[in-house]
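User: Hi! I'm working on a homework problem where we have to compare a predicted structure to a textbook description. Could you give me the structure for the chain below?
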Amino acid sequence: MAKDGKGIIEKIIGKAVEIRPSKHYDAPVIAPVKKNLKESRVAIVTTAGVHLKEDDPFDTTGSDPTYRVVPGDAKMEDLMITHGHYDDSQAHLDINVVFPIDRLRELKEEGVIGSIAENFYTFRGYIPKTRPLIKKSAPEVAKALVKDQVDIAILTPG
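Assistant: Happy to help. Predicted structure tokens:
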């Protein structure tokens, strides 16, 4: 634990988030699949804290509702993880465990899916203050996915 008490503060905040009553939101409407998988455009959306090395890292000191855009043709060596709230040791060995970009490319090459989205979207999953995420970031990403004509979004946790 850091001498400034940061570790204990994060634990207390985390516990408060677990037990506090939160505003009830209706379940999201799941869009029906209208295309054959072989014709579908697929994107990845993750809360694993993945981003391009050249991007600003996620803020691991608090609640960061921002997102990063990862091009669909990004190279593995250009990616990194900034999260701090899960054991990402295996993901650093093979980022596909949280961000299955190579598996998606294989599915495209095998003809299982039609195409890969122009961009993927990434978040840091520990976001105790959800209002900015719900009101700004998530709707922006949803609009971007629609604009890119994504049929299926693979969601991966962090």
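For your comparison, note the following. The longest helix spans residues 131-147. Residues 34-156 form one domain. Good luck with the assignment!
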